[in-house]
Amino acid sequence: MRVVFTTWAWPSHLYALVPLARACRAAGHEVLLASEPGLTRDVLRADLPVAVVGTDVDTAGMVQEYLLPLPDAAGPAPKRDGKGPRALRMLTAHAESMTADLIRLITDWQADLVVYDQVTLAGPVAAAVTGVPAVRQLYGFDLLQRARGVLPDALAPLADRFGAGPVDPFGAATVDPVPASVQLPGVQRVLPMRYVPYNGPETSPWQPPGPRSRPRVCVSWGHTIAKVDPSRFLAGRMAAAFAGTGMDVVLAVSAAQRDLLAELPENVRVVVDTPLRNVLRDCDAFIGHGGAGGILTALAHGLPMLLVPQLPDHAGHTGRVAAGDAASVLSMAELTPTAVREEVRRLLDAPEPRRAAGELREEMLGRPAPAVVAGALAELRPSFVRH
């Protein structure tokens, strides 16, 4: 079987696809990862074959329009274009960029199946045009359920242009790595999958900090916020809040983020380009911005977390995990060093957050491994499989 995996050029969306793509290759299937030019290096570093489709879109510029307002913000709210969710313009811009090339790739490579990141809507359109099944993979909580009523109409002009007719943006099935107890209701035709953290390649041996006698907290701020607005990259500020507290802090950043850090207390250790999955093995709690990858990686380690969302989708992710009692959430208006310390101390001392995070970890471990899901994909529509 030949499988095209596709996402637009954003590392965290690629990272969600990597474990299943690798499982398909291990099962003997041919795999190709199709994305815009800006993701090529990240795909190759994930040891996956890559095909370039479309052109790069100014994702960071668009995301700037969706930042949640700061508590002291003055002036009118950002303008909204069109109807429906604000991010719809970004989703359709990527679909416009990628669809024509993706159709050619599927046809020329004779693909049997398309697996698409949940927001990469070129996937279901191109699959419909070429007559192959399309499977949606979630990178986190299924926030697009809220747009179910407007997505088909938003895709209709693009689908009509290529002669696809009506397109189901939710695919023939949905691969879902999120524990069912905290996932949004309404996800249909689910292929549950165990979340296997991939947060980037291993670039050097991980050196565990060694034995310890006091709590250790990890702070990480993902990839998105620093690209969109460096002034909102709060990882260093969050780590500095623990000066003189008797806690150890591991601050996980990328090489591009290192220069955004000011002077830090002695109890803060900075690690650069180290996958989050490695850092969290030796920690007791996680502090992040509410991205789905960080949340699910923390849950995979059974860690309670403090989250500070700055984008609407981050607010959606944090709301779900907070409802499951595994996280505390602070808004930007509530964000003070004292509040950060108090919330983290509560996460460490109160039994409920750790119990809830541990139960979600066990729920994740009970789901089928990516290798099992790879087998299910091969059986999904056997009449389409040519190889």
TrEMBL record:
Superkingdom: Bacteria
Protein name per UniProt: DUF1205 domain-containing protein
UniProt keyword Lipid metabolism present: no
Similarity comment text for this entry: Belongs to the glycosyltransferase 28 family.
Domain Erythromycin biosynthesis protein CIII-like C-terminal residues, every copy: 247-380
Annotated ranges, domain Erythromycin biosynthesis protein CIII-like N-terminal: 23-222
Alphabetized UniProt keyword annotations: Glycosyltransferase, Transferase
Organism: Streptosporangium longisporum
